[in-house]
Amino acid sequence: MSSRTANATVDANEVPESLSSVVRDAALVVTCGPGGVGKTTTAAALALAAADAGRKVIVVTVDPAKRLADTLGIQGAAGGDPVEVPGATQHPHGSLWAQMLDAETTFDRLITDRAGDATRAEAILANPIYRSIAGSLAGAQEYMAIERLHQLVTSGEWDLIVIDTPPSRHAIDLLGAPDRLVSFFSHPVYRVLTVPGRSFARITNAGASTFLWAIRRLAGAKVVEDTVEFFRSLSGMEAGLRQRAAETAKILRRDGTAFVLVSSPRAEAIDEAVHLAGALRTGGFPLLATVINLVHPTPLPLASPAKPLASGPLADQFALHADLVALAADEAREMTTLRTLAGGVPVIEVPLLDDVQDLSGLANLGRHLLEPDD
Amino acid sequence: MAARRTAPHGATPAWLGHTRVLVVVGKGGVGTSTVAASLAVLASRGGADVLLVSVDGKPGLGPLLGGTPLAPDEQVLRPLDPSPGRIRGRTITPKQAFGDYLELKGFGSLLRRAASAASFDVIAGSTPGMEHLLVLGKIKELDRERAADLIIVDAPPAGHAAPFLRSASALRATVASGPVRDQADEVSALLADHARSQCVMVTLPEETPVNEVIELAYDLEEDLGLALAPLVVNACWPDRPGFALSAAAAAKQQQVSLPVASRRALDDAVTFARGIVERQRVQFGRLDQALPLPRVHVPRLPIARLMPAHIDVLADALATVPVVPGEVAR
Predict the structure, then answer these.
(1) pLDDT in tens, A305-316
(2) Hey, what domains does chain A have and what are their CATH numbers?
(3) Cβ partners under 8 Å of residue A169, min gap 6
(4) How large is the average pLDDT for residues A221-246?
(5) B2-240+292-318 has which fold?
(6) Residue B269 and residue A321: Cβ atoms within 8 Å?
């Protein structure tokens, strides 16, 4: 499929009218937003819509909560190979694949793939510092998403890649991950520690020796040995990491990439979404659409009762109606804030739907996303 | 005086009065911070001196309780409804906790300089779980000093709650000796001491949040031996008896005549509410089955932006006697 080059209407400088052009033409969609707003399901629904349009699509989630797995039936596939979602689309050329990222297993794979030889890989994997670092090193998870993204893009296997990011603060971490990891590897202490063939006792660099001394005082000699060993075993892998990080930074900003911001009308979510929209703009990432999920319906107008109601079933119903009116008005006010700050990109409101847990639910969500009623 | 003030709100629930450190956890978007703030108000109504700690640096909690955005320096918060107790608020960042720790342990300026020369990030990054342990260590220290009657911790969200609470036991596996080991031991002891600390989990009456809270509960209790306080189910739509009737029937029962348009508007609203209440009931049933833990149901308020006045309403709801699984089905 050459749709992305032949008909590249998705362009950082050109705002599409709706999400349908994104689904049809984009090569990479990145969904981001605060937690609990249906970001993962939105990513999956967009991916499904693209598959229905005849494209070969993969949706990747880095969200540690296994929501996408729940929805797509790929539980237990974390860190594994992409899984085709059976019966996702009737389109003869379309297919939907899903993959879950898990920092630890992805890190293991990265080590196995890039360590050069099996003995070295084993040494790294067995290192106790590595074992406890793999899942928790600052930005490890985010960085692994970037690595995987790079792999998927360069494989040339996919018409569209949909990446779901961790909740908002971490989404910013995700975008900054390549730079951060590079700066970690550039740290003078790290550089000294990774010089091969020099024994730990003879490290004379002032910064590194005070660093190790501090660790030894705080955590004991064994940890120092493991730390040195760990850093040393990573040496040589770093150039590749840097290069892919730099390439990924470009991919995330190029034509054919579309950022979709997902929020809900609740104030905390809106505040985070506004913040995130600003961060995307500052970072030069192409924000092409904003989705507001979970919007409560505005009830039909209702005249107040002629005289005050005593408590009873009708009073319950009037109270409910008043609550819904108040809620809808409050939500509308919050959404106006986001609309104003979204900078002219389409803002798609999606009503509160029943739990979206299966493929037909995703398809239904997709219809709301692609053909919002005004 | 105190009696008059606390009486209309009901007394502090027993479970809240019995603890010194309360860690509030839940995934992003379930309202963990709001619940933490409301629990602080509730405890202060009973006369407690409360310290509210935001770990994730969410400054918004301060204004919600009549203060300025939370910062590393402690401030006294002034919730809308004055109470006999007191609420102070602050943030704790790993970096700051690290500095305090070194000073407390009497490490000289040499080590402190070494730490900053090597840059905090590299140290914390190379000793995984260290950041979390530092923050928990600081909280443990505050408890040891009896800095407050009750310390309420708004824990990091999303997938980060379990790693946060697990940091101490994980580090004990990696680090065999030295000050870090001591710190990890002491933090583990605090968390496992049911007389001193409890964990409040917050969730929503929806499929995925319920799945996740069930998993989290077993993680926290079985793996870490934490004491679990009643589960807080946030944003529950009130189920009113009138929702069972059509608008026409309800009007007839109250002997009111309603125009057709009004009947339609009410029927529409009621249909919507019934759907939500029904789905909610399914989730309560799942919690009944899977999680033998008392629950407090907090109502969904008809607002999008929470204001200081709402915190009092939520505190009232948190003061109610927890529902025991199995008894809610009615």
Answers:
(1) 888 899 999 999
(2) 3-173+253-370 (3.40.50.300)
(3) A272
(4) 72
(5) Rossmann fold (3.40.50)
(6) yes
In contact, B200 and B22? CB cutoff 8 Å: yes
Distance from CA of B266 to the nearest CA of A (A): 6
pLDDT in tens, B275-315: 999 999 999 999 999 999 999 999 999 999 999 999 999 99
CA A83 to chain centre: 18
For residue B131, the chain A residue with the least C-alpha distance is A138
DSSP A262: E
Amino acid in the structure at residue B279: R
Å between B1 CA and nearest CA of chain A: 33
**Residue, of A142 and A162, whose pLDDT is higher:** A162
For the entire predicted model, the pTM comes to 0.86
Give the span between the Cα atoms of B327 and B127, in whole angstroms. 47
The whole-chain average pLDDT of chain B stands at: 85
| ipTM of this complex prediction, to 2 decimal places | 0.88
- Per domain, the residue ranges of chain B are 2-240+292-318
pLDDT band of B246, cuts 50, 70, 90: very high
Question: What separation in angstroms does the CA of A4 have from each of A1, A9, A55?
Answer: 8, 8, 11
From the list A326, A298, A325, A319, the residue with the least C-alpha distance to B250 is A319
Tokens 């804030």, residue? Answer: A337
User: Are A94 and A195 within 8 A, CB to CB?
Assistant: no
**In this complex, is the C-beta atom of B108 within 8 Å of any C-beta atom belonging to chain A?**
no
